[in-house]
Design a protein that fits this description.
Blueprint (H helix, E strand, L loop, with lengths): L5 H16 L12 H12 L3 E9 L1 H5 L26 E2 L8 E12 L3 E4 L1 H4 L4 E5 L5 E3 L1 E6 L4 E5 L22 E6 L7 E12 L9 E4 L11 E3 L5 E8 L10 E5 H14 L5 E2 L2 E4 L3 H7 L7 E6 L4 H4 L7 E5 L2 E2 L5 H7 L6 E8 L2 E8 L1 E2 L20 E4 L2 E4 L3 H6 L9 E6 L4 H4 L7 E5 L2 E2 L6 H10 L4 E8 L2 E8 L4
Antiparallel strand pairs: 1-3, 1-5, 2-3, 3-4, 4-8, 5-6, 7-8, 9-10, 9-12, 10-11, 11-14, 12-13, 13-14, 15-22, 16-17, 17-18, 18-19, 18-20, 20-21, 23-24, 24-25, 25-26, 26-27, 26-28, 28-29
Helix pairs in contact: 1-2
Length: 491
């Protein structure tokens, strides 16, 4: 049986839902039977969901070149399994001199005046954006603002009459197992309703610095991008954005941007058309049990500073690599990825208090948050270092050498690079398991800088005397640094 038109599709979805909920083995939400709760919600909320379609000149037509084979969404791309573009691309009309692509996605109305939320990737590079309402009327949309970092966009249409609008909910109250309803336009069919539960919260899918997704098993397919996820109160608690699927179809693993992250960004886009984020200039890395033990922390918590940017608020506050930020502006940091979002949400020029772990105890620090500027000037180049005579030391399963002009040239290291050069990493050693390799620089043990290989053995001995099972080393590669905990038994 085939259905055509939005009302027919909505009817088909309702019939399919009634069949699904009558099947044995399905639990009922506490608010009441499925037929009552879900059908009432669907009837009330379908009108706030819209279809978003775009037209754009194909990239190859714009540049006159072939599309790169390793671009996102193409075969072999690193994030190929996360089909952020659910909607797919369709070629332009036959015979057109400039090939065009078309995309389909979803959105939802947040203001009766015609403000619509969707995903940024739904409208990326679009020359023309068309919004189709639930009554099949179409409108040309203008972009109010967009934020590629969180994949959010705000559109505006000029409606003749006030439109039904959705209300934001509190996604921080969402629990694993809570029922949710997703409404969108899978495969361009129009308003389609699916139900499921929250499978996980605060999910990191490595798509950006502020990943904090809600995971759901509600069916999400191509075209659902930008559509809303409702709780049983009919409030938007998420924006459906990505799925994990080997085939591109739903296998019950979908991800939504939580409302707690999306709503403040949408408010900024509504007010100014752009998003301004806070920045402190501390590059962080995740904590591990081994790193926590090596620092004397009771458990793995906080965000560890791997590097401090030049002339940043963190540098002015005298924060250092190896410090662990335990709280930010009065909020405890249990997981390292909490910190970037807290910093980003902080208004520039605000004074913020930090609790940091340094030298086996807590310290208080304070800094003034700056505005994030992707084009921040680079630090001045360091003074060239005088050549040093070669030497080698073996410790922790590593063979270390002093930097010389010849070794700098061999491993393509800058004149300003400092530390002890790793020449070899023993096979099957802890360093090898951590991904260390020849050409890396060992720049510090704990908070003690390493200038020569001979600096390492005394620091290792000191860690043993203090009863440490692991020693924390700071390693630099291609200008980026990170901390690694190496067991002392390998020395």
């Amino acid at each position: 049986m085939r259905f055509f038109g939005r009302r027919a599709v909505a009817l088909a979805a309702s019939l399919a839902l009634s069949t699904m909920i009558a099947a044995p083995g399905w639990a009922q939400p506490p608010e009441g039977p499925f037929a009552e709760v879900f059908s009432q919600m669907a009837g009330r909320l379908v009108g706030v969901v819209v279809n978003v379609s775009t037209q754009a000149v194909a990239p190859a037509a714009k540049t006159g070149q072939d599309t790169p084979q390793n671009s996102p969404g193409s075969p072999g791309a690193p994030l190929d399994e996360f089909f952020r573009d659910f909607f797919g691309d369709k070629g332009g009309p036959g015979g057109s001199s400039a090939p065009r692509t078309a995309s389909l996605g979803s959105g939802f109305i947040i203001d009766p005046a015609g403000l619509i939320v969707t995903n940024n990737h739904v409208i990326a590079n679009a020359d023309q954006i068309t919004v189709t309402l639930s009554d099949d009327t179409t409108h040309q949309a203008q972009v109010v603002g967009r934020d590629a970092v969180t994949d959010l966009a705000l559109l505006k249409i000029n409606a003749k009459t006030p439109l039904p609008a959705a209300n934001w909910g509190d996604s921080t109250q969402a629990r694993v197992g809570d029922w949710v309803l997703a409404i969108g336009n899978p495969f361009g069919l129009g308003g389609t309703v699916t139900a499921g539960i929250i499978s996980a919260t605060a999910r990191d899918i490595h798509s950006g610095p502020y990943d904090d997704y809600l995971q759901t098993d509600a069916s999400i397919n191509r075209g659902n991008s930008g559509g809303p996820m409702f709780n049983l109160s009919g409030e938007v608690i998420g924006i459906n954005t990505a799925i994990y699927s080997p085939s591109g179809g739903s296998i019950g693993i979908g991800f939504a941007i939580p409302a707690a992250l999306a709503q403040p960004i949408i408010e900024q886009l509504k007010a100014t058309g752009k998003v301004e984020r806070g920045w402190i200039g501390a590059r962080i890395q995740p904590m591990t049990d081994e790193i926590a033990e090596s620092l004397g922390l009771d458990k793995s918590r906080g965000a560890m500073i791997a590097a401090v940017d030049w002339a940043s608020p963190a540098e002015k506050a005298k924060l250092q690599p190896g410090d662990v930020i335990l709280s930010y502006d009065g909020k405890p940091i249990e997981r390292s990825r909490q910190l970037p979002r807290l910093v980003a949400d902080t208004p520039p020029e605000k004074q913020v208090k930090l609790t940091i772990w340094r030298d086996g105890k807590e310290h208080e620090a304070e800094l003034k948050v700056a505005a994030l500027n992707p084009n921040r000037p680079a630090p001045p180049p360091p003074d060239p270092e005088k050549p040093k005579s070669p030497a080698a030391v073996e410790a922790l399963g590593l063979k270390l050498a002093k930097l010389t002009p010849e070794l700098r040239k061999q491993f393509s290291l800058s004149d300003g690079a400092k530390g002890a050069l790793i020449l070899e990493v023993a096979q099957n050693s802890a360093g090898a398991a951590q991904g260390l390799r020849a050409g890396d620089l060992l720049v510090a043990v704990g908070r003690s800088a390493i200038a020569n290989p001979e600096d390492l053995p005394p620091l290792v001995s000191g860690a043993k005397k203090h009863g440490r099972k692991n020693v924390l080393v700071r390693v630099e590669r291609e200008g980026s640094s990170r901390f690694v905990a190496l067991p002392l038994e390998t020395s």
